Amino acid sequence: MRNLFANRTQALFTILGALLIFFIAWPLLRTVTGSQPAIIWETMRQAEVRRSILLTFYSSGLATIIAFLAGVPLAYLLARVDFPGKRLIEGVVDVPVVVPHSAAGIALLMVFGRRSLLGKAFSIVGLRFVSAAPGIVIAMLFVSLPFLVDSAREGFEAVDPRLERVARTLGASPWQAFWRVSFPLAWRSILSGMILMWARGLSEFGAVIILAYHPMIAPILLYERFQSFGLTYARPVAAIIIVICLLTFVVLRLIAQTEQGR
Amino acid sequence: MQGVEKNVQVPSPRGRQSVSPEARAAHRSQDSGRLQLRDLWVDLKDFHLREIDLDVAAGEYFVVLGPTGAGKTVLLEAIAGHFPTQRGRVLADGVDITETAPEHRGIGFVYQDYVLFPHLTVAENIAFGIRLNSGPSLRPAHLRRLLDRIWRSTKKREPIANTCVQRRVEGISQLLSIDHLLHRSPGTLSGGEQQRVALARALVVEPRLLLLDEPLSALDPQTRESLQRELNRVHRELGTTTLHVTHDFQEAVALGDRIAVVHEGRIVQVGRPEDIFRRPASEFVARFVGVRNIFFGTVQHRGEDDTKVFESSTLELSVATPLIGPAHASIRPEDIIVSREPLRSSAQNAFQGRVVDVADRGTLLYVTVDVPPDFTCVITRHSFERMALREGLSVHIAFKASAVHVF
Fold it and tell me: Which of A160, A171, A179 lies closest to B129 in CB terms?
């Protein structure tokens, strides 16, 4: 504590930083403590609320798994191989971060909508995106993918390529070298990317509301309660969402940390 | 995970697992491990190799010597198959492996800075190559073995897959005296220990050829010397053909059966250490190996006391060294005292000889004195003029036993 106020500059920085932390923490705390526990409990018992929270978790998890399957190989290529247009590809991966998420929702609707080519193709195998769970998944995937790819790429970049070369001289195929050397060494970054991506997916609102208002994910349910019934009814839902998100985030970070300690 | 074996003519080194050690040794000493490079060209951003032609005999310890940035590492990585060659061929045991993937070449690689797998223990590092094929695979036979292993592992968890792997890991660790480190993590080891682990990891898969990229350069002088002796011993015991790259002339002389000197991506001279030193093929080689007095002989105890003598065919030197047996001795030209009269001094080595050559280098002169053999001494112009030295003159030279570097 004394270190933070060691000199005037640090004292000033400490005060400015504290204001910012306060700015984040106060509204969150206010929301969580603002509702009666009984009311929160009552809200929790509503099937609609529980369903929407589960749907949010499940959709974001699915999006993260899809991103893991395709994004980790992409991240590996970006870290290891020099090819023409690599910078462009890196830019494309990061575009979802800068595009307004409602615009991303419109863009996805254009491609996966009922009358679009892809939409029709998928409807043959019984997969519908508009106003359906798959739509929620692709919306979350689109907006949170950069977190996983960027983190995994940094992880792979930190692995000395000579480790793979040594593995090859010891008889490992490129496939074995990837799974036994590069992947385990980049795993920490990949895992932290997955946590970030999953958390980002949970909080997605803009893209999802355009693609799939129903079935309702938690942020949309909250929005609807606020619109239809006002602050009093929206507040307990907000409190529940915040608490659950914080808890899972903390738990996952702890898991990642013990992974690190190994 | 998949152990795809491409259809190549080259027998995988691991294919020899079933052969008994004696048979393997006999097999190797005959003809396994011969390396030939034919007109090899490699172009990378900063380095180029030009028309490299090289023949390394089976079982030979071959040293590539050259200054930093001469393209030595690129040469090794090209042989290992990490970089495509622009032109030329790489042949192992007479079979063209230029297009063969690194994992099918049977060529081991040890880097200057060890490059151990940081996420594995020492034992797992060493076992890496021999456990590869025991891993999960998509081939039916492997799948069955995998299922079998999962079934067995539900009953009892095995630390390292099987006793065969364990035995090989222990064997090579004992050879390199690292068997007490097996459970440690690489990050906790000293440089010398890490390099031993890297050697063990490369040797345990029984490569036909071992490539060493400046393996001693990152180590402190004491560790370097002991690991250098270790390399020598391991090579004698296993007989693995070795290609060792270094910028250190003494290291090259101490280890190499033959030496190739590389300059700007080309091989400028190949020969036995004595040849390179005695008859440098170019001005560059002469300058790079330096004007040094290097002799080849044996170190023996002299009588009862602790002193030792270094004997070559024409020479007997008093030396101070822990070594015994075949060795090299070198004396720096500036450590030799030249005089017209016999000297009474603490120097235990004193000889009489004739001046056969004087090379003028400005303020310093290199005087070659034929004892025999030839000694090169460096003296200042001032001393040179005071002693009125000239070719053909008889002089005395002297140097202390401690000035003789034995390696």
Answer: A171
In tens, the pLDDT along A18-46 reads 999 999 999 999 988 888 888 888 888 89
CB–CB contact A173 B107 (8 Å): no
CATH architecture of residue range(s) B24-289: 3-Layer(aba) Sandwich (3.40)
A105: left (phi over 0), alpha (psi -120 to 50) or beta: alpha
Q: Among candidates B3, B183, B33, which has minimal Cα distance to B95?
A: B33
Work out the end-to-end distance of chain B between its first and last CA atoms, rounded to an integer number of angstroms. Answer: 48
- List, in sequence order, the alpha helices (H) in A99-217: 101-112, 117-124, 133-157, 161-169, 174-177, 183-202, 206-211
Residue whose token pair is 């539900």: B154
Q: Is the pLDDT of residue B310 over 70?
A: yes
* Tokens representing residue A260 in the block: 């690190």
Q: With contacts defined as CB-CB under 8 Å, which chain A residues touch B77?
A: 165
- Give B284 or A47, the one with higher predicted confidence: A47
DSSP secondary structure letters along B163-195: HHHHHHHHHHHHHTT-GGGTTS-GGGS-HHHHH
- Classify B256 in phi/psi space as left (phi over 0), alpha (psi -120 to 50) or beta: beta
Chain A closest-CA separation from residue B83 CA (Å) = 11
Q: Does position B79 have pLDDT exceeding 70, yes or no?
A: yes
**pLDDT value at position B22?**
45
- Write b or e for each residue in B211-225: b if 16 or more Cβ atoms lie within 10 A of its Cβ, otherwise e: bbbbbbebbeeebbb
Residues of chain A found within 8 Å of residue B129, distances taken between Cβ atoms? 170-172
A175 touches chain B (CB under 8 A): yes
Q: In percent, how much of chain B has pLDDT > 70?
A: 83
Q: Classify domain A38-77+84-261 by CATH architecture.
A: Orthogonal Bundle (1.10)
Q: How far apart, in whole angstroms, are the C-alpha atoms of residue B150 and residue B136?
A: 10
Tally Cβ neighbours within 10 Å of residue B177: 12
pLDDT of residue B145: 63
**SS (HEC) of A70-128:** HHHHHHHHHHHCCCCCHHHHHHHHHHHHHCCHHHHHHHHHHHHCCCCHHHHHHHHCCCC
Six token digits for residue A203: 């909080």
- Chain A residue at shortest CA distance from B204: A170
Q: Which two tokens stand for residue B199?
A: 């050697």
Residue A254 scores a pLDDT above 60: yes
pLDDT at B140: 55
CATH 3.40.50.300 location in chain B:
24-289
Domain ranges, ordered by start, for chain A:
38-77+84-261
Of A153-157, A165-169, B252-256, the poorest mean pLDDT is in: B252-256
Domain ranges in chain B with CATH number 2.40.50.100: 293-406
The per-residue DSSP string of B192-208 comes to HHHHHHHHHHHHTT--S
Contact in structure between B141 and B133 (CB atoms under 8 Å): no
B323: alpha, beta or left? (left if phi > 0; alpha if psi -120 to 50): beta
Look at the domain B293-406 and name its fold. Answer: OB fold (Dihydrolipoamide Acetyltransferase, E2P) (2.40.50)
Looking at the predicted structure, is the pLDDT value of residue B28 above 60? no
How far apart CA A222 and CA A235 sit, in angstroms, is 8
